[in-house]
Amino acid sequence: MSSGCPPQSPAVAKSEVAVEGECPLLAATFAYWDNILGPRVRHIWTPKGDQLMFLSDGEVTFLANHTLNGEILRSAECGAVDVKFFVLAEKGVIIVSLIFDGELKGDKNTCALSIILPQAELAFYLPLHTICVERLKHVIRKGRIWMQKYFCSASVHCFHFPRPQGYNIISVLSLEIVPIMELLASMKSHSVPEDINIKDTVLNDDDIGDSCHEDFLHKAISSHLQTCGCSIVVGSNPEKVNKIARTLCLFLTPEERKCSRLCKADSSFKYDTGLFVQGLLKDSTGSFVLPFRQVLYSPYPTTHIDVDINTVKQMPPCHEHMYNQRRYMRSELSALWKADSEEDIAPDTVIHTDETFTPDLNIFQDVMHKDTLVMSFIDEVFMLKPGLSLRSTYLAQFLLLLHRKALTLLKYIEDETQKGKKPFRSLRNLKTDLDLTVEGDLNIVMAFAEKLRAGLHSFVFGKPFYTSVHERDALMSF
């Protein structure tokens, strides 16, 4: 009699993640479309601890199934990841779902990796949406490889032999789900406010003294602007770290400040890919080790500022950063495909598995190019009386000037290249015509323009950079 009954629904596996502080994330789910049973939830991640809003496993399963309904006829290119954003007012939640194809149980299935938040957290989450999505997209790339390896190994090994161990899609996805929970919890408590009082920054001081040397402040702000507003501030004193971090955030837009984080006094946060400015505390030995992979995966190059020894270092410009990032990403995925188990590949050792890709591990270099824009700004802003709104007004005028210069540069390149139809060949004329003959000034304006028009660096400097890379590799071989 039981043979005619449908199979029982298996219990959904669940992981409780210990997160320090209040995590606004209600749950994360991995679901797939079963051709017999329809939408199925494979795994649920929930933060451990007290939450203002709680969803039962049944409600989480319902919401996860909701994201897969209508995806059975999905038509997309192989490897494509579709991002869906649901606002369910009747349930009081928002769902961010990444839809992709993967091999499960020997068949091609439509899968969904989703995160669920309260609708009240919509304004908090939106500025961080791009950061979360990009990080989840890459872990999906790794997860699809892991599922494909499992499918291939299952087809090769018959029932008389055990399948290879280590092909666990859930453990791969957890590598990014857990850090995103920690990121959202840390941003909830230590994010930089949209409006920063200049009195809490170095720009309100009467003058530049021993606490912040003028040359150090100039280098920090200049490099910060040259790397598209992305900076890491490290040190042993949390007050000093946060003061410099808030100072750098003055040069960001209100939305970018919401993607920046201050350091925590009693313990240090981990480095998080995608944030603009983040303060990090050194350990008891006076050191802080940055993970090579996470730094390289940042969307923009980064400035490294040490407030203990007043040093400023920066990564290569955008076009070189993107070149190294994509090479490393391909190497990581290739190494993952060749690995026999998850333990065989450590995230920061991928560079040793691909002999064709040997990036410089010391990716932070001294600031090579001086500028006149920031130097003049610092000289003039401290001529104004502190404690008034004059310095804030002058800062706003300075940022408006840089923005207008970036727009002018974009228009100049559009006219010279007929909106990209021809290659750009007149960099010397651009420097002269726009009064950007100083390399530091050009780098700052180019960085502003890069955020307005992504890919500008690669368009302007692309071919010379590839040529220089090949020449450098040839010279190093002798």
Characterization of this structure:
- GO terms for molecular function: guanyl-nucleotide exchange factor activity.
- This is C9orf72-SMCR8 complex subunit.
- One of its GO terms (cellular component) is autophagosome.
- With 478 residues, the chain is an alpha/beta fold.
- Among the domains are: 9-190, no CATH class; 369-476.
- 42% of the residues lie in helices and 16% in strands.
- It is built from 14 helices and eleven strands.
- A six-stranded mixed β-sheet has the order 1-3-2-6-5-4. A five-stranded mixed β-sheet has the order 8-7-9-10-11, covered by helices on one side.
- It is globular and about 70 Å long.
- Mean pLDDT is 82; it is low at 1-9, 154-166, 350-358 and 469-478.
Keywords:
single chain, globular, five-stranded mixed β-sheet, 478 residues, alpha/beta, guanyl-nucleotide exchange factor activity
Give the uncertain stretches in residue-range form: 1-9, 154-166, 350-358, 469-478
Please count the helical segments: 14
Note the gap between the termini: 78 Å
Order of helices and strands: EEEHEEEHHHHEHHEHEEHEHHHHH
Compute the gyration radius: what is it?
25 Å
- Strand order within the widest beta sheet: 1-3-2-6-5-4
Structural classification: alpha/beta
Mean pLDDT: 82
Percent of residues in beta strands: 15-25%
Number of strands: 11
Largest sheet: 6 strands, mixed
Cα shape: globular
**Helix proportion of residues, in percent?**
40-55%
InterPro entries: C9orf72
Protein name: C9orf72-SMCR8 complex subunit
Pfam family, one: C9orf72-like
GO molecular function, one term: guanyl-nucleotide exchange factor activity
